UniProtKB/TrEMBL annotation:
The lineage of its organism: Bacteria, Bacillati, Actinomycetota, Actinomycetes, Mycobacteriales. This is Secreted protein. It comes from the Bacteria. Residues 1-24 form the signal peptide. Keywords: Signal.
Length: 160
C-alpha cells in the first residue's frame, strides 16, 4: 500500500518540476489583433440554456510578463471599450463594466460586470484561445435579490 503512494508522489513532483521551467516569459505574453467570437447559441442564463445573440469583435491585445506567472496588459475592442488584462493560474482574464446592461420593468437599468476568461486551446494551436464570456448584474437589481448572469463560450483567433 505504501509503494503506490510513493510512486504517485514522485510522478506528480516530476511533472510539476518539468512543466514550470518549460514556459518561458515570451511564450506566455500575447500581443496582436484577435477576432473574438462569443457564441450565443450555447449561452446560459442563470445556469439554464437560453440562446443569446452571438457577438464578434476585434481586440488589439498588448501584454508583457516579468515571469511566466506574472503577466499583465491591455485589451482595446473595436466596440469602443478597453480594459486591463491579467494572467493567473494559466488563464487570461479581462473584466469591464457594461453600462445599462440589465433593464428593469420600471425603466431603470443597471450595469453588468463582463469577464472574459480564456486559455490556450487544447491541443495547443498558436494564436487560438478558448474560454468563457460571462456578464453578471448586481444582486438586488430590478427589485430581485438574485444575480442575473449570462455565460457563453468565447473563442479568440489571432489575425495579426
Amino acid at each position: 500500500m505504501i509503494r503506490p503512494a510513493v510512486v504517485i508522489g514522485v510522478a506528480v513532483t516530476c511533472l510539476v518540476g518539468v512543466a514550470s521551467p518549460a514556459r518561458a516569459q515570451g511564450e506566455v505574453a500575447i500581443n496582436g489583433t484577435f477576432t473574438v467570437f462569443s457564441d450565443g447559441r450555447w449561452a446560459e442564463t442563470n445556469d439554464s440554456d437560453h440562446p443569446e445573440l452571438s457577438v464578434t469583435q476585434t481586440w488589439t491585445v498588448t501584454s508583457t510578463c516579468t515571469t511566466y506567472q506574472d503577466c499583465a496588459g491591455r485589451v482595446v475592442s473595436d466596440q469602443g471599450w478597453s480594459a486591463d488584462l491579467v494572467y493567473m493560474s494559466g488563464r487570461w482574464k479581462v473584466t469591464r463594466t457594461v453600462p445599462d446592461w440589465e433593464p428593469c420593468i420600471d425603466g431603470t437599468k443597471h450595469p453588468g460586470r463582463q469577464s472574459f476568461t480564456f486559455w490556450s486551446d487544447y491541443p495547443p494551436e498558436p494564436g487560438r484561445f478558448v474560454g468563457w464570456d460571462k456578464t453578471e448584474g448586481p444582486s438586488g437589481a430590478c427589485g430581485f435579490n438574485k444575480v442575473l448572469d449570462v455565460e457563453m463560450p468565447v473563442t479568440l483567433t489571432q489575425v495579426s
